[in-house]
Amino acid sequence: IFGLPGMGRFLFDAINQRDYPVIQGVNLIIVSVVVLINLMVDAAYAWLDPRIRY
Q1: Alpha-carbon dihedral angle through residues 8, 12, 14, 16, given to the nearest 10 degrees
Q2: Over the stretch 9-52, which tens digit does the pLDDT of each residue have?
Q3: Structural domain of residue 39, as residue ranges?
Q4: Domain count, the chain
Q5: Per-position DSSP letters for 2-54, written without gaps between them
Q6: pLDDT range class, residue 1, cuts 50, 70, 90
Q7: pTM attached to this predicted model
Q8: What phi and psi, each to the nearest 5 degrees, are found at residue 45?
Q9: Is residue 53 part of a domain?
Q10: Could you tell me if residue 17 is inside a domain?
Q11: Domain contains 30
């Protein structure tokens, strides 16, 4: 499974070919995933430790 080309290879090829819309799209996906994971971790902290208030 690790031999299959994925998002990293896709981004690397797009950078080499100067394909700006693909670079922007991949960056948007990566940033969205990071933001969603951070929101889930914050919610989990509040759920696990009720002393935390936002």
Answers
A1: 180
A2: 999 999 999 999 999 999 999 899 999 999 999 999 989 998 88
A3: 7-48
A4: 1
A5: TTS--HHHHHHHHHHHT-HHHHHHHHHHHHHHHHHHHHHHHHHHHHH-TT---
A6: low
A7: 0.74
A8: -60, -45
A9: no
A10: yes
A11: yes
